[in-house]
Amino acid sequence: MGNSIIEIVKYKPEHQPWFEKFNRDWIEKFFWMEPLDVEILQHPDKNIIQKGGDIFMAIYQKEMAGTVALKFVEAGVYEFTKMAVDEKFQGKKIGEMLAQVAIQHAKHHKAKKIILYSNTKLNAAIGLYCKLGFVEIPLDGPYKRSDIKMELNLSSKKAAKIKSFKRGVIGLI
């Protein structure tokens, strides 16, 4: 396979159907939609953007392929949430690129750490988070399906190795 371009762009309101679809697909495949999921997925502007967070969308060969959100928690802390890659694009490092862009964005906004909630059934996701430097911390959180909470200290050695991308990111794989 030759080089394929993955473009990461900031969320726009017209991306909402993909943001919802990509997340709904994986949540319903492995778990169930919780009321908080429905609210966030149907109203990401209100629940993430307007509260100081950001959402990024991945485009692979001119098709919407995935998404990730950074939800503002408090000064210096963001939550890594709603990361999903369409099944037909999995295995192309799109999730890793989305994660790296989100981490770099949090650093740019002076975050000290990023937290996330997940489930240990999601082996590929947990593996990616560990690769990026996230470590398990005591569990609390808003989702019933979560059985793990992880944190990335942005001053850690692993976090320092996260690739830096320019705005209007384009990557080659």
Q: For the CA atoms, what is the radius of gyration?
A: 15 Å
Task: Estimate nothing, just give the exact number of structural domains.
Answer: 1
Count the DSSP helices.
6
Poorly predicted regions are 165-173
Question: How confident overall, as mean pLDDT?
Answer: 90
Class of secondary structure makeup: alpha+beta
Based on CA inertia axes, which overall geometry fits?
globular
Helix content: 25-40%
Describe the protein:
This protein is an alpha+beta fold and 173 residues long. It is 32% helix and 30% strand. It has an eight-stranded mixed β-sheet. The protein is globular. The protein starts with a strand and ends with a strand.
Could you give the topology of this structure?
Layout: E1 5-10, H1 16-30, H2 35-42, H3 44-47, E2 54-60, E3 63-74, E4 77-85, H4 94-108, E5 113-118, H5 123-132, E6 135-137, E7 148-153, H6 157-160, E8 170-172
Parallel strand pairs: 4-5
Antiparallel strand pairs: 1-2, 1-8, 2-3, 3-4, 5-7, 6-7
Helix pairs in contact: 1-2
Which short descriptors sum up this protein?
eight-stranded mixed sheet, alpha+beta, 8 strands, 173 residues, Aminopeptidase, 6 helices, single chain
